[in-house]
Amino acid sequence: xxxxxxxxxxxxxxxxxxxxxxxxxxxxxxxxxxxxxxxxxxxxxxxxxxxxxxxxxxxxxxxxxxxxxxxxxxxxxxxxxxxxxxxxxxxxxxxxxxxxxxxxxxxxxxxxxxxxxxxxxxxxxxxxxxxxxxxxxxxxxxxxxxxxxxxxxxxxxxxxxxxxxxxxxxxxxxxxxxxxxxxxxxxxxxxxxxxxxxxxxxxxxxxxxxxxxxxxxxxxxxxxxxxxxxxxxxxxxxxxxxxxxxxxxxxxxxxxxxxxxxxxxxxxxxxxxxxxxxxxxxxxxxxxxxxxxxxxxxxxxxxxxxxxxxxxxxxxxxxxxxxxxxxxxxxxxxxxxxxxxxxxxxxxxxxxxxxxxxxxxxxxxxxxxxxxxxxxxxxxxxxxxxxxxxxxxxxxxxxxxxxxxxxxxxxxxxxxxxxxxxxxxxxxxxxxxxxxxxxxxxxxxxxxxxxxxxxxxxxxxxxxxxxxxxxxxxxxxxxxxxxxxxxxxxxxxxxxxxxxxxxxxxxxxxxxxxxxxxxxxxxxxx
Amino acid sequence: xxxxxxxxxxxxxxxxxxxxxxxxxxxxxxxxxxxxxxxxxxxxxxxxxxxxxxxxxxxxxxxxxxxxxxxxxxxxxxxxxxxxxxxxxxxxxxxxxxxxxxxxxxxxxxxxxxxxxxxxxxxxxxxxxxxxxxxxxxxxxxxxxxxxxxxxxxxxxxxxxxxxxxxxxxxxxxxxxxxxxxxxxxxxxxxxxxxxxxxxxxxxxxxxxxxxxxxxxxxxxxxxxxxxxxxxxxxxxxxxxxxxxxxxxxxxxxxxxxxxxxxxxxxxxxxxxxxxxxxxxxxxxxxxxxxxxxxxxx
Lengths: 526, 298
Prior knowledge:
The complex is a heterodimer. Chain A is built from 17 helices and no strands.
């Protein structure tokens, strides 16, 4: 029964019906990139509207819809699927497995997403327009939201089903499919980061599902979970949402840690410093993520003792995160560094993510947070961790493994150009937001007071450059896929690379490790 | 190259996942439309909504039966290995964990309401003005028989734990024992006992559901306890309702397994589907114990 299939099928059926982890990884990555452009286009309109004070381009309601959809698309449509794409491509090749453990379910996980986002995006064309209450959909804004909210809710259910199945696949692959001799402690750190991420996904996506379910019944069936008139509490929504939401932000950053931890050793010609402590730090961050959620709600209000607990627990996260930053610094220290594009993005990550981490620490302090809350300082903070954090690591990983995946080296000059354009324009866009926020400019509004005009204009100009730079990335990728460039060697970067993926040809065969690699090979490459 | 592992079976292309994705798509848009039919101010067509939902549900039923049939045939053809079996088992365990977390959110909501939201609404804590300014006559109590605002009709009574709930607890716990009996019988090859024990488990599960339906109608008809009767009704019906849905799903799974038992498709060594269903059934059982304690008794 179909066991002798070597190459990919022809035509569209290859992509629709595939069970191949490489194909599914490619699908995830392309889907994420398309969503990245869609969400980015929304951001461009937001920045155009904010280019100068006053309402010019879009109505305030449309503006709210844009910020909402930008957030939802980037979180669930771009960053998460991109990391899942990396997981699909790399985990089987890194652990020496023939494929993901449950290949058909893997296909299902992916193909739910385009349908879910079709529903979400179609809400633009519904009566009342798209959801307009921010990606956090706080009650009672969302309980009173437009009719499309119910479609949004069901599309979130579909995304959740997709994520949970994808995460189950990752965990089972890692636990059950490792080549003989590859103990968990010898496993590549990217796989470790994804193992923990997958656990977080399975733990909290059902919480999100429950939150949107309560929202659905509150809206349509008269339950009063979030309505104090019936004995419920709108604050309950925030607690449930952020119990999902805080682990969720680590879902979007732990795989980034994994990617950067793979890249830095290659371009420093050193082993990752403190590998074991790096693994423990990931586990510690994931564990802490469950007990810090209410730091998103300091201005909502809670008993003092609860506030203190959440403040201290949040600041505790700086310890394992510090372990990671210092270990990366120690890895770089006295290394034989070269600065190819993946390394540039990885270094950019270490510097800029740290800035985002520090502003996070500032936000963790209750007295300070009461000033910063819902200002552009928060917007600056989470774009430093999500754009120069998660997204830069995705770029770094894409450049790092692209030669392995396609067999062709991308254009290094253009790659470096992409990095510098992105890094500079990113900082022009988001660094001024720190100042705007500290000066009191609230987020999620289409108009603002005159004193913020200069910074907003700078920020908007930066964002247009950043947005356009990503088209360069698209061009570089397509050129490499089309084979326009130098042929990549099997080792690609280093003559003695670590990681089983470098023992395969570039590009790898359609099916790899159909029988597990030998213990000797595993031992030589860990 | 010599390895300890057998070759892991990687299936060729499959239609089932994309069929499943289309099915979910139709269910989602069908459901959203159907919900809107019953809301004032929408001109959504009932027929079209039911048609969309019907298409979605049919496609999913077609997908589930087809996909499982396919997997069973592959297993019978000897394509699977011990490693594959472990993948299935671990997959099921993590799926059940995700279900546990889904219920955890609703339990969490219940605890938050009882421990914090209602007492605060009743004037406890550092902000007594909440009571004075919102609903000064509100008294925090549990079960909540007086909602803060009359726009939510309050229930007259709630279901006491010692009637049907206690009986239902006994039924489900017994069914947990009978499915273990069935598993034992399967492993030692006592076919008659296996089928008998499976039949008992299903009968107990369906009886539970019957009592649950009776309890719901009693609550709606006689007690004024409804989904929209304030937070007690909300938490009560959402928790027990989702549990009931899971019992329904579990019963369907058990029936399928019984049919397969009667066909003799399980052996003492090879019966993953049986065990997965048994795990699921135990999970449903444990959730019920949580409900019995926290929703009915306390």
